[in-house]
Structure formats: C-alpha cells, structure tokens
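CORE FACILITY INTAKE
Project code: CF-77B
Contact: R.S. (postdoc)
Sample description: multi-component assembly, two entities in total
Requested service: structural model of the whole complex
Turnaround: standard
Below are the sequence entries exactly as provided by the requester. Do not edit them.
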Amino acid sequence: MPLDEEAVAEIYREHGPMLRRVVWRATSDANRVEDIVQEVILRVWKQAPEADNLRAYLITTARHLIVDQHRAAGRRPQEARLVDVAETDSALDRALDQVLVEEALGRLQTNHRDVLRCLYFERLSVAEASDRLGVPEGTVKSRAYYAVRNLRVILDEMGVTR
Amino acid sequence: MTTGSDDLHVLLGAYVLGGLSDDDHRAFSEHLRTCTQCQAELGQVSGLPRLLDLAGPEGGPHLSTTATPGGAPPPLMTEPDDGRLTTLLTEVSRRRRKRRSWLSAVGAAAAVGIFAGGAWLGPSVFSTRAPTPPTTHVVAAAAPGSTVKVDVALVTRGWGTQLDIDCEDMPTDGEVLLWVIGRDGKESTAASWRATPSGYSRVTGATALRPNEIQSLEVRTGSGRVLASART
C-alpha cells in the first residue's frame, strides 16, 4: 500500500464533511467530533480501503464507535443498569437513523426535495403541491417518482437498508 | 386526464408519499395488480415512509422552511480543514510504522487512548426535537430459550394503533401471532402470519387500543409459546 497518505486524504476530503455532520448531530459534542471522524477514517482505511460502498462502511463504523463509547459511558457505576443500556442502545440507533435520513434528504436534488416536503411532510395533494410549487401536476408526479427512487439509492449508499 | 402505462408507472412516487387524487389512486392500484415491475419497485421503496417519519414531523433541517436554532451544524463542521488533515496524516504514518513493526498487534490501543472520555454522549442525543412523535418503537426482549429479534413500531392512528412488526431469527415454520395486552389486562391478537423459511418477516397489525392503553406486546407461536415480549 504505497499511497496510504493519499488514500486517507482522499477519503477525508470526500467523506469528512458528511461524517462530521452525522457525528456532530448524534453526539452534540463538538470536541469529540474530529476525534471520532478521524478514528473512523483510520479504521476503515486499515480494514478495507477499497470497500465497494465506502460511505456505508464509514457510517457503520461511526455508528459502532459511537454506540461502543456510549455503552462504555453507561457502564459507569452510577448508571450501571443493564436495562437502561439496552434501551439507550436502541434509542441511539434510532437517533442515528434519524440523522442519516435527514442527511439523505439534504442530498436530494432541490426540486425533488420540495415535492417530497409538500406531499409527505405537509400532506398536500398533488394538485395543491402543483399550485404551491408553480409546476404542472404531471411534473409533481414525475418529481415524486424520482424523489422516491433517488432517496432509496442515497439511503442504500449510506448503509440504511431497512 | 391519463393514461398510458408509462403515465401510470410514474404515479408510484406519489402513491408512496401520498397526495394522489382518488381517480389516480384507483388507477394506480389497478395497474399495480398486473404490473410486476411496479410491484418490484414498490417493494424497494415501501419502507421509506417509516424512515421519513424518523426525521420528525418537518423532515429535519434540510426540509424545514424556517431556520432551526441549534439544529444545523456549526460552520466549522462543514469544510475539511488542512490542519486537521495534517494531523490525520501524521497519525496514518504513525500507525503504518506500528503496523510494520508489530504486524498482528495493531489495533484498539490507539483508539482507547483517543476515546478514554467519560459520559460525553449526553442526553442531547435523545432530546433532538421530539414533539410528541406519532410513532414509538419498542424492541421486544426474546423469551428464555428463544433468539428472535422483534422490533415493533406503534403508529398512532385515528382508529387506534398500527403495529409495524419486524422479526428476525424467527421459527421457520408454523403460525406466529402478535398479542396485545391492554392496561385493563384484556388480551387480543393484532396480527397472525405464517413463518417464513428465512426466519424474517415484516408484517403490519392493528388494534383499536391507543398506544397509551397498551400495556405489553407478545409474539407467540400458534401453540401459545411466547417468543418475545415488550412492555410499552
């Protein structure tokens, strides 16, 4: 592996910003974000620098690191209750999924995102969304189609497969 | 208006997200019965609403029309920074040297050093914007002697509660049922399905009880053996 530095720098440049957002939002601790992001990149580089789906690999690794750290924190005597650890694990998983879904929405093309917001989050009809966005109903329908397809692809790439 | 088959195909998006007129909804449902391509595509994207619900009622910072104070990462998080990259690369070469000299013993030590902190993962994780979410997830604990993994999402509906059930490592034959036990102690089945050879199944059940009226959920075999249970 003669080009380690280059490989790591490339991973860092390409995926660093996304990883920092995800880790920051999952932990809300700005001081730790950079440590975690770097550790994630180093681990992935060490284990599988040419993984097919690097983004999913990075995110999964970040998830494990955050969960492990959280568990370690939870085992401290004053809060060492197994039930709590199990419960917070799944809450943490959900919090991470939430961050990833929001991240994925941010990666959608703007006009796809607008249609998705109108139809799903604001519960507008196709006709209402057409008014709101100033485009024909047919356009709302086709954008909705591509929004859904692309969102699935983005989530798959991020390793969110359910 | 409408409808060549291509026009119908594209309705899949609004069918999943919601918003189709009654006519379009009917037309697409009809089309779906015979179009295997649409059936396959629907299978790939039908889980999206559940994921979108995780993003909260407004879809998170990228979708909110109003700025969310504290919701967006601080500016320093958005751009890679050369100083950090240098630190990272220094660490890379350090570890590479270590790997050469130790070979097999590379590993967790460095990580432990970095992460020796205490309870830094504060309650903030759990307070990220949670204004009465309409969906609650519960993970059912496997009964002794059983290894099943069951995750149930309780979705509040006007008529009661929708129960989205994800099961893994289930028995591979026989019948499986989801029982709902109310706070008044009454038991009722909310879903029954046949075990699959893969041991994985995802089904949806329903109960007239509201989420706060449900005391516990149990996944049982047809013969009444409890596979997993959860208190809500």
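Facility notes:
- Residues 66-80, 99-133 of chain B have pLDDT under 50 and may be disordered.
- Chain B touches chain A through 67 residues (CB under 8 Å).
Invoice: internal transfer
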